[in-house]
Amino acid sequence: MIPIIYEDQWLLVVDKPSGLLSVPTPKNEQRTLTSILNLYPCHRLDRETSGLIIYAKVKDIQQKIMDGFRQRKVKKAYIACVRGVPFKNQGEIKNRIEGLSAITRYKVIAKRKDFAIVEVNPLTGRTNQIRIHFKQLGHPILGEDKYAFRRDFKIKAKRLMLHAAELEFTHPVSGKSLQLKSDLPKDFKDFLDKHSQGR
User: Which end of the chain, N or C, is less packed with Cβ atoms under 10 Å?
Assistant: First the structure.
């Protein structure tokens, strides 16, 4: 059962669980979020990332939302747990990805033993942008196994500790501002409880 966060006659916003692909890769996987919903994806989340994702019920609405992402009119906020604690409590990472400009803002919201909880705002939407930028910063996301060796992490996480928590955008038909939120999933909360301060 995929939790629905928002729905009307044009749009569906759901809370994707970690471990489920958004759209098929070249391997042509049968079971993806897109195949389950049978709608038009407006963006994507990595398989291991949980959280908010927008689908359109008609093709031209999909195009309008995708244009909004390209024009940086969709605000996104993620919660991530990263290895160690960044030197600056907030900052901006501007390293290019595959030759394209990529900008990620972050703010440390809590510090735990051996890791930090950060709020992340990607201003561009490059593939795996957040994961790549935090690896380059020297603070890869806990549970990372694509851009860092999971065995090198002092703290083990069973999943990538990255959650798409908030979306803010203008509805393409009504013109209303939508501000949508997703709570941290249970496995994410359980991890934070297990590694709470002072343990």
Answer: N
